[in-house]
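[agent] plan:
  1. take the single chain provided in the ticket
  2. run structure prediction with default settings
  3. attach structure tokens to the ticket
  4. add a short note for the reviewer (M.T.)
[agent] executing step 1
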Amino acid sequence: MNVMPNSRIDWSGIIFICLVLIGWEIAAQAADGFYFPKATGVAITSFGDWRNISVATGARLRRTAIGFGIVPGRIRPLGEIVEPVL
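[agent] step 2 finished; step 3 output follows
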């Protein structure tokens, strides 16, 4: 029995993302400006600077988690709305 649950691939979503990235790259090459970077340049810089990005993302997630703990605790109506979800 060779059954893989949830193994369907959403090709339309993948194709859409690829088309957006290709459109971004073409538009950035046509504009050839400093303020409109190419998609490949952003990807290369992101992969090259992954340590700083991961540290900054971790700090942001930590601050967000603290905020979600403090704000609903201080504002009772908000806490009553948010608590069942969290």
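[agent] step 4 note for reviewer: The two ends are 39 Å apart (CA to CA).
[agent] ticket updated
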